Structures are given as C-alpha cells and as structure tokens.
TrEMBL record:
Disulfide bonds join C105-C137. InterPro entries: Calret/calnex, Calret/calnex_CS, Calreticulin, Calreticulin/calnexin_P_dom_sf, ConA-like_dom_sf. One of its GO terms (molecular function) is unfolded protein binding. GO terms for biological process: cell differentiation; ERAD pathway; spermatogenesis. The lineage of its organism: Eukaryota, Metazoa, Chordata, Craniata, Vertebrata. It comes from Neovison vison. The keyword Disulfide bond applies. GO terms for cellular component: endoplasmic reticulum lumen; endoplasmic reticulum membrane; nuclear envelope. Belongs to the calreticulin family. It is found in: Endoplasmic reticulum lumen. Keywords: Chaperone, Differentiation, Disulfide bond, Endoplasmic reticulum, Glycoprotein, Repeat, Signal, Spermatogenesis. Residues 1-19 form the signal peptide. This is Calreticulin.
Length: 384
C-alpha cells in the first residue's frame, strides 16, 4: 500500500502545535513594545532603551530590538508572561544580541525571573532563576554566563565558555533538559554541553534524598530489629507431651517460636541494601524542585551595566521545544545575518573611500596653501 504524502508545511504546523511557547518577542509592532516592557524606576540614573536596528542591519524592521543608549549606565527592564514551571520538561532560552559599538566593558546577558518579581523596582539585588549570555570587559573577561539559582544560592558553570566579541548580531541559546544535561549554542552551533551536577559542582536532590533516606531508614531498620523483629511467640500448634509430669516439672508451657527476620515487606536476609532501598523509596523523592527546575517562571529581563552603549537585544524566545527554537532562530537571525554583514562591508568600503578622499583633499589644500604662502612672502619682500 502506498504511503500518503505529508506536505512539509503540515509537518511544520504539527511541530508548532506540539511546542509550548512561553514567551516570544520580535518587536515588530513599533512603539507598542512599551506596553509590554517595564522600565525600572529603582534608580533615576538607570539608562534608557530605544527601538533600533542600528547603523547596519540585515532588515531594517526585522532587526529592530532594544538598544542601550547611554554610556556608563546600569540598565533594568523586564517583560512579564504567564507563569509556568519547567519541572520534568525541557527549557530553551534563546535571543540575539549585537554589540554594534564593539563592546569594551559591559553585559549582554539576560535574566529569567520568578513571576512575583517587582518590575518597577528591578535592580541588581532582584532574585532571578537563570542568568545567561555574554559578558565582556577588557582582555580578561569574554565569557558566556550560565548561572542557576538552586537552594537559595547562585551557582556558575565551572567551564569557561567564550562569547563572540565582534560587532555583528549573534544567536545565543541555552537548553536545560530534565535528565540534568544542558547545552549552550551560539549561532546554532553547540559550543558547550554536559551534566549540570558535574559542571556546576552540585548534587541533585534525588541523590541527596536517596543518601539521607538510606542512612535514616537503614539505621532505623537496624535499631528496630532487636525491638520487634526478634520477638518470640507461642507455637499454637504444639500440644502437651503425654509423659509430662506437672508435679515434677511444673506447669507446661508451649514452645516459643522466633519471628522471621525483616517482616512486613522490609529487607529479607541476603538481599542487597540498595535493592531494598529502591523498593522503599521509589515514590519518595522529587518533592522539591531539582537542579534546573523552577516553580514559578514569569518574567524575562535585562539587568546589566555598560561602559559604552549601543547593544541591541532581539528575538527573545522561551519554549519547551528544541526544534521549535532552532527553526525560530533560522527564521529570524538566520534570514538577516548575511545581509547584515553585506551592509557592514559596503559601509566599510564607503568609509575607506570617504577617508581617502578627505586625505587627498587635505593634501591638495596643503599644496595650494603652500603656494599662496610663497606668493605672500615674495609680495611682502617687494614692498620692502
């Protein structure tokens, strides 16, 4: 039987349906972005954002994003969305950033906040769940931050992940999976991946609870053994022997039987402790949020410092689907990255041409100026 042909657009639509998109922002509706993003008023000296595609771009409208506008300032702005938990789900955080000003010192990272964050008072002390993205300062710091909040503390990835340092737009993506693996991508290419426990020097709640329960329950089982499991009971099936002499031997008492050790489904003799523990604990853990699991994600924001302004943030995405994020990146950054570089190359050539013309003009002016000075000297000499 011939297989039915499924058009590509149908497959793409199915992918969209299966994906959960928690937040997506492309700034395609002009100044209406101000209705969605809240500028913090915590400090009157905070820098301001504007919507811009920069001095060079791949598409004037599609490349518009939030641009920092003032040098030597802190910035704090955020957008809220419907709260969700990523417990047991993949979490993908993705966005584009362009350091058009050739960043010398400043942040290009984003933060993911709990839903109850105070947007109007957003500042460097505001609690966040995740901090992700590039940070550049001088020759020493050119890294991608991946900081996770776990058990009331912030933890950084121990690996050094290098960021892009040029003036073009780049696509950054962080993937956190429920199996405690992660991946960092730049421009669609995987640049770092691994296990969260190892790369953050942390221990999963699963392991911590297992270790704690193993010690507690095993000690309790051993302690109860002498109190309960070794108790004796009368053998009800026994009968008084026919030759029993009560006057000589006293009243007859039935024989005592010992209870089998480790009753009630607990550990029988000869079975490994870990096997018993698995049966005892199979439904006991995951009562708290584990590494890379967050209960009440509800806002995304920019809270950073820049010495020289001009950075543009765009194409924000938070989803549970890696493939959707990849396709979104191709449809946004992927479509404009080439034309952006072409426009920059054209502008660079024009600047070189203009500079050459200015140099030639100055040279010509210098020659004419020299001739005029010579004429004036001879003219004054004749007058003497």
């Amino acid at each position: 039987m011939a297989m039915a042909h499924v058009p590509l657009w149908a497959v793409c639509m199915l992918r969209v349906v299966l994906a959960t998109v928690y937040f997506q922002e492309e700034f395609l509706d002009g100044e209406r972005w101000r209705n969605r993003w809240v500028q913090s008023t915590n400090d009157s000296q905070f820098g301001h954002f504007r919507l811009s595609s920069g001095k060079f771009y791949g598409h004037k409208e599609k490349d518009k994003g939030l641009q920092t506008t003032q040098n030597g300032r802190f910035y704090a702005i955020s957008a809220r969305f419907k709260p969700f938990s990523n417990k047991g789900k993949t979490l993908v955080i993705q966005y584009t950033v362009k350091h058009e000003q050739k960043m010398d010192c400043g942040g290009g990272y984003i933060k993911i906040f709990p839903a109850d964050v105070d947007q109007k008072n957003l500042n460097g002390k505001s609690q966040y769940y995740i901090m992700f993205g590039p940070d550049i300062c001088g020759f020493d710091i050119k890294k991608v931050h991946v900081i996770l909040h776990f058990k009331n503390q912030y933890h950084s990835n121990k690996k050094s992940i290098r960021c892009k340092v040029d003036g073009f737009t780049h696509l950054y993506a962080l993937i956190l999976r429920p199996d405690l693996t992660y991946e960092v991508k730049i421009d669609g290419q995987s640049i770092e991946s691994g296990n969260i426990e190892y790369d953050w020097n942390l221990t999963s709640l699963k392991k911590m609870e297992k270790s704690s329960a193993e010690s507690k329950d095993w000690d309790q089982a051993e302690g109860d053994k002498s109190q309960d499991w070794e108790k004796h009971f009368l053998d009800a099936s026994a009968s008084k022997p026919s030759d029993w002499n009560s006057e000589l031997e006293g009243d007859w008492q039935g024989p005592m039987l010992q209870k089998p050790p480790y009753q009630d489904g607990l550990k029988p003799e000869g079975i490994d402790k870990d096997v018993w523990l698995h049966q005892k604990m199979k439904n006991s853990y995951l009562t708290e949020y584990d590494l890379s699991e967050f209960e009440n994600i509800g806002a995304i924001g920019l809270e950073l410092w820049q010495v020289r302004s001009g950075t543009i943030f765009d194409n924000f995405l938070i989803t549970d689907d890696e493939e959707y994020a990849e396709n979104f990146g191709k449809a946004t950054w992927g479509e404009t990255k080439g034309p952006e570089r072409e426009m920059d190359a054209i502008q660079a050539k024009e600047e070189v041409k203009k500079a050459r013309e200015e140099d030639e003009q100055e040279l010509l002016m210098g020659r004419f100026g020299g001739q005029e000075n010579t004429f004036q000297r001879f003219h004054r000499r004749d007058e003497l």
